[in-house]
Design brief:
The complex is a heterodimer. Chain A is built from no helices and eleven strands. Chain A is mostly beta strands.
Chain lengths: 118, 111
């Protein structure tokens, strides 16, 4: 149980285009999803927290107009990198929290999406 | 503020050696503690967790005990294998806050 999928796993795009990454919780409902960015050989940087049906909360320094997050259902959140530039190239990882138990705090992670902007 | 400090790597061990990766945390309240593992090119997988003091999390031969008095959650394994080579992240969560991660420790196990 507690499987999180991401699609696509890898994407290459031209500078100036937009890229959408999907994150799905496959066997549980996730009221809250998180989006992280990971630079090579570095830890994960939290970009934003997404709650189903409401606006995402972005961390300081993350441009909300650049990284659009939508959490339209309890099993799906999307991250759209708008007008991508080479410096947006990174490994993006989503995470979902199983809210079925009030005491459950575990976050489950997707396999990540590697974005390369040319 | 909230933070996690874990030993810096890389850690290189021979197969069947004993592994310890230290982790201490600074948090308010009573956080839940986690170890995640990231294999090359993949996302994070939950390795083990502990939700209250003195709990021991264990999985795949790895263990960690929630030590409230020392605010620690050190990861141990008695005999590592080449397949354990990965990056290990210590993390905690308090209430409904997102996970706070350590910087990760890269482990390389050589045959």
């Amino acid at each position: 149980g507690a499987v999180v999928s991401q699609h696509p796993s890898r994407v290459i795009c031209k500078s100036g285009t937009s890229v959408k990454i999907e994150c799905r919780s496959l066997d549980f409902q996730a009221t809250t999803m998180f989006w992280y960015r990971q630079f090579p050989k570095k830890s994960l940087m939290l970009m934003a927290t997404s709650n189903e049906g409401s606006k995402a909360t972005y961390e300081q320094g993350v441009e909300k107009d650049k990284f659009l997050i939508n959490h339209a259902s309890l099993t799906l959140s999307t991250l759209t990198v708008t007008s991508a530039h080479p410096e947006d190239s990174s490994f993006y990882i989503c995470s979902a929290r199983d809210q079925s138990t009030s005491s459950e705090k575990t976050q489950y992670f997707g396999p990540g999406t590697r974005l390369l902007v040319l | 503020g909230n933070s996690v400090t874990q030993m810096e790597g890389p850690v290189t061990l021979s197969e069947e050696a004993f592994l310890t990766i230290n982790c201490t945390y600074t948090a308010t309240g009573y956080p839940s503690l986690f170890w995640y593992v990231q294999y090359p090119g993949e996302g994070l997988q939950l390795l083990l967790k502990a939700t209250k003091a003195d709990d021991k999390g264990s999985n795949k031969g790895f263990e960690a005990t929630y030590r409230k008095e020392t605010t620690s959650f050190h990861l141990e394994k008695g005999s590592v294998q080449v397949s354990d080579s990965a990056v290990y992240f210590c993390a905690f969560s308090s209430g409904n806050t997102p996970l706070v991660f350590g910087k990760g420790t890269r482990l390389s196990v050589i045959a």
